[in-house]
Amino acid sequence: MRSGWRLLIHSLLLLIITLPLELATLFIPGTSAGLPFDLLSPLPSLLGITVATILARYMLDRRSFSSLGFKMDNRVVPDLLFGIVLSGLMMGMIFVAEWSLNWVTLSGTALDRFSMPTVIRLTFEALWLYLCVGFSEELLSRGYHLQNLQEGSNTTLAVLVSSGIFGILHLSNPNATLVSTAGIFCAGVFLAYAYLRTQQLWLPIGVHIGWNFFEGTVFGFPVSGLSGFHLLEQTVTGPEWWTGGAFGPEAGLILLPVLLLGTVAISLYTRSRNLA
User: Fold this and answer.
1) How many H helices and E strands in the chain?
2) Phi, psi of 228 (to 5 degrees)
3) Measuring CA to CA, which residue among 41, 25, 83, 88 is closest to residue 206?
4) What are phi and psi of 245, to 5 degrees?
5) What DSSP letter does each residue of 204-258 carry, written as one string?
6) Long-range contacts of the stretch 270-274 (C-beta < 8 A, 24+)
7) Residue-range domain boundaries for the chain
8) Residues 132-185: pLDDT tens digits?
9) Hey, what's the torsion of the CAs at 122, 128, 134, 140, to 10 degrees?
10) pLDDT digit string (tens) for 191-206?
11) What pTM does this model have?
């Protein structure tokens, strides 16, 4: 079956599986209480993407699920940790740059509002959310989308199209604009590079998890327009075209030099791998 048909059927499977799961959570006590990081909230998307991709991979692609980039070897943990640390450093650079330019105003920490046990609990709830999001979005975008497009066309077109879809999928987020979509597209290209350099999904998954966690939970920026629990209380006052405003750094020009530095870091980290 051609890759275009496989992608279409996979999308239908994703919709058929995810929609009932999303509806089911509405009837579970506590899920509609307005909590920012309810432990159940990421499960419908996580299960929907995972189950749909497993079915499509075996039934349509006639390949194993692990062949998408889940090889279990001695590089799994280093790739995950490097991705998390790298994205933390990248987000730290954005915060320091904006703070030094007086574009960020600090007003306190989470301990000013919550007790220490509550801060620890909310931090782990946030980490759980971003673990689910990082895995599921990379499985979908750099896993099934990118690799099927690559089989049906070429690597360059596959990266551009899959990153474009990645950006479009974030258009429904709060405060999303065409500029933020372009920023998410650039982030998608960066994550695709992490996959192509390793031919595995562990590195982009680590980058994705770390980026969201440090962006939102640690430094207090909006995560693609979404706000939640954060350790630092801060307000962004700089020019929106640089900072990204209410959507977060992905919608600002400050994203581009940081992605470039991250690309160099990934290139150096993977320089010893024998890849075509």
Assistant:
1) 10, 2
2) -165, -155
3) 83
4) 60, -135
5) HHHHHHHHHIIIIIIT---BTTB----SEEEEE-S-HHHH-GGG-GGGSTTHHHH
6) 270/197, 270/198, 270/203, 273/197, 273/198
7) 72-269
8) 999 999 999 999 999 999 998 899 999 999 999 999 999 999 999 999 999 999
9) -130
10) 999 999 999 999 999 9
11) 0.93
